[in-house]
Amino acid sequence: MNNDEAAKIQKLIHNVRNPLNSISLHAELGNMLLEGQTSNDALQNAFTVILQQCRECDRVLGDIRKLTTSETP
To answer: Is residue 63 part of a domain?
Structure first.
């Protein structure tokens, strides 16, 4: 693996970690909102963000897969 490929992979890993952190934060928020018996709108927003970030992780992981399958031996 050359330096360009390693840099691309590092960037993609970083791009997966960001949405994972957001998922974790919004899941915690959802738990806190449930404990506080908040409005359904606030809960729905927390879960919407979680779903969006899951889709972003899936997209970036697809980019990683493409990068690894496009290499020639």
So the answer is: yes
